[in-house]
Amino acid sequence: MNDSADRLHIRPASLLHGEAAHHAVHCGLALPLAGGPAAFALAEILHRCTTTGEISRRWVSARDLPSLAKDSQPLSTRLERITAPRPAIAGLDLSRPRIMGIVNVTPDSFSDGGRHADSDSAVRHALALTEQGADILDVGGESTRPGASEVPVEEEIARVVPVVRELAQRGLTVSVDTRKAAVMEAAIAAGAAIINDVTAMRGDPRSAKVVAEAGVPVILMHAREVPVRPDITHEYEDVVLDVADALESHVRNAVQAGIPERNIIIDPGLGFGKEADDNLRLMQRLPLFHGLGVPLLVGASRKRFIGAVTGVEAPTERLAGSLAVAQLAAQAGAAIVRVHDVAETVQMVRMLLFAW
Ligand code: PMM
Q1: Which residues contact 205 (CB under 8 A, 6 or more apart)?
Q2: In the beta sheet, which residues pair with residue 55?
Q3: CA neighbor of 333 nearest in space, from 272, 289, 300
Q4: Domain 98-355 belongs to what architecture?
Q5: Domain ranges of the chain
Q6: Which H or E run includes 309?
């Protein structure tokens, strides 16, 4: 995509689901969102001037987008990316939302730290999440919690590898949440199918090479600072466009490093260096991220911004708020939601698929 296309975004709005989406797409009144089943009837076209930073916005009907795109290469490329179906990731068909269950093998994660700190209890927890319907198990050995201590690489490998091996041997789909290339290598050798990197492979100069050579999918999460400091917030010009442009540049770097686009997943990184209002704005405008043309992951479970809105202090008490955000993500066409409360999220998604 050329430079002018980088500055142009389409934000799908007026989302439709189920029968309404099907008929509206069939009649040319709406366009499919990331291949469907959701569709959109309206869109906001945003253009950020590269010199002044000024953002122009205009609303169009989705039915007019294909003809407008005929006269504009950047618009045409964005539109194609927004509407195209997403390929399967690690054998998982993404035509319905997938649930990633969080398995933190750490003594200090913000909402479940210490509960599964040894391999046996982490494996037991992961198997329970699988029973509840998790599609992917995200195993992490280093907390991103503000103030969490840095874990030496050998220690992180010792925490995650036995858990990854045990789960992979049972045929389960495992991702490993790490910023270190050596941990990625060890986890892939033990059977990890997906790498989840909160630094979008900027945390370790070898990461992109390891991922490219292994041919595994990678989740590129947005965090402005590397090393990642979730507690330090930033001023954004426009948080949604800033995050989208940064992620697009991470995708480009990954492709240049030899990782095919079909193996890339993006994540806006809710809670990472963002104020509560920034996270809410990202949630409200999630469909814009489909313009990057790759599957979208959303991780909001139990996060502080949910506490800020609901007034609920204890992360483990934030289930209802977390479910509301997961539902919003699923309706906005997110391919994967990363959650602690798998049983409840599975129930919500199943109900949604039947009810919309
Ligand atoms: N959040 C945390 C850790 N890893 N990975 C991705 N891709 N997206 C996230 O939002 C994310 C993550 C922090 O939450 P935790 O301590 O509950 O795992």
Answers
A1: 181
A2: 48
A3: 289
A4: Alpha-Beta Barrel (3.20)
A5: 3-83, 98-355
A6: helix 304-310
DSSP 174: E
Average pLDDT over residues 135-155: 89
| 3-class DSSP assignment, residue 36 | coil
According to the model, what pLDDT value does residue 2 have?
45
Amino acid identity for residue 250 in this structure: H
Q: Is residue 230 predicted with pLDDT exceeding 50?
A: yes
Amino acid at 221: M
Active-site residue 159, yes or no? Answer: no
Asked if 70 is an active-site residue, the reply is no
In the reported structure, the alpha carbon of residue 23 is separated from the centroid of ligand 1 by a whole-number distance in angstroms of 37
2: its two tokens: 């050329």
Catalytic option among 303, 304, 318, 350: 303
Residue 269 CA to residue 246 CA, distance in Å, equals 11
pTM for the full predicted model: 0.95
Pocket test for ligand 1, best of 303, 338, 340 (most atoms within 8 A of CB): 338
Element (H, E) at 16: strand 8-16
CA gap 331, 178 in Å, rounded: 28
Inter-axis angle of helices 153-169 and 181-189, nearest 10: 20
With contact defined as beta carbons under 8 Å apart, do 21 and 39 qualify? yes
